[in-house]
Design goal:
The protein is mainly α. The chain is built from twelve helices and two strands.
């Protein structure tokens, strides 16, 4: 009885049949670890193209659509066109990030990926509400280059506790929402980056399609870092990428085309940020709003300070 109750080894799969999988088999995850250094992945042109396109249209384009489209179509007490863009972004971006993780030839920590995706969606949704109200305030004279309490339409509100409510809204938009949105976003990109190494140096080349996408991708990351005020998060992610590249190089591993695309995009982003800071270095008004050690003005603050006044002057003529 005791001998019959002992665990018996699982029968081998028949020739030509798929390897059994499940929680009782070590097939997928166990075997994948032994193949990690030999598996490679071609450049994901479809995913990177859709990812870059939707970032530009749904993220960068949403405040523009909110301002350009007639106010009669989207009353101030209803969601704006930009809000619908943001809703689409909150669905499409997590889906594309999950598809990127699925395309990775390496076994990646899925639990961390799932928790990051959930946090990302929650943070982006919090930002959706705060950003919607803040951008709608532009039509009432709100100026993004000023702090909440310094804005002419808010500083004279009665009772003064209403100002605290607007500061809370700004906190949800610019701090809590951004943190819960961008930290998991960059974490997922870094997790994906850890699987972008190959021992074959011939595969460490970027196709022409990747080179063409590098510019728009880098420019979007510049906008993301400057408008989101997440330079510290970005630079730590970039340093982690550099450290991983040097560590893997000692093992004889180099970046594949997908890793090179992501790495070069981050390098060009750093150059663009440096040019942006140097250009606005002596702007006293923006300096007042960003008094910290790290001075990186937001593009929309620059727009409301300079470009909107220029447009108003042209209309007056």
């Amino acid at each position: 009885m005791q001998s019959s109750a002992r665990r018996r080894p699982f029968p081998a799969a028949a020739p030509g049949s798929p390897q059994p999988s499940g929680p009782l088999y070590a097939g997928r995850h166990g075997a994948a670890k032994n193949e990690d250094t030999s598996k490679t992945s071609p450049f994901h042109l479809d995913l990177w193209f859709y990812f870059t396109l939707q970032n530009w249209v749904l993220d960068f384009g949403r405040p523009i659509a909110m301002i350009i489209l007639p106010l009669e179509w989207f009353p101030l007490n209803k969601p704006s066109a930009g809000d619908y863009f943001h809703m689409a972004y909150n669905v499409i971006t997590p889906f594309l990030l999950l598809k990127l993780i699925e395309r990775s030839p390496k076994t990646l920590p899925r639990s961390m990926v799932y928790v990051s995706i959930i946090t990302f969606v929650m943070g982006a949704s919090i930002h959706l509400v705060g950003d919607s109200v803040n951008h709608r305030l532009i039509f009432s004279g709100y100026q993004h280059h000023l702090s909440v309490r310094e804005n002419p339409i808010i500083r004279n509100l009665k009772p003064e506790t209403l100002i605290d409510s607007f500061e809370l809204l700004y906190y949800y938009d610019e701090y809590l929402g951004h943190s819960m949105w961008y930290i998991p976003f960059f974490l997922i990109l870094f997790i994906y980056f850890t699987g972008c190494f190959t021992p074959n140096e011939d595969e460490s080349r970027m196709p022409m399609s990747a080179l063409l996408l590098t510019g728009p991708s880098s420019l979007y990351y510049w906008y993301l870092v400057t408008e989101g005020q997440i330079f510290i998060l970005y630079i730590f992610t970039f340093f982690a990428m550099m450290a991983l590249v040097m560590h893997q190089k000692r093992k004889g591993l180099v970046l594949d085309s997908n890793g090179l695309f992501l790495f070069y995009s981050f390098i060009i982003t750093l150059v663009l940020i440096a040019v942006w800071v140097v250009w606005l270095w002596n702007d006293k008004t923006l300096r007042k709003k960003y008094p910290g050690v790290i001075y990186i003005p937001e593009p929309w603050a620059f727009y409301t300070l300079h470009m909107s006044n220029l447009h108003a002057a042209k209309e007056g003529l």
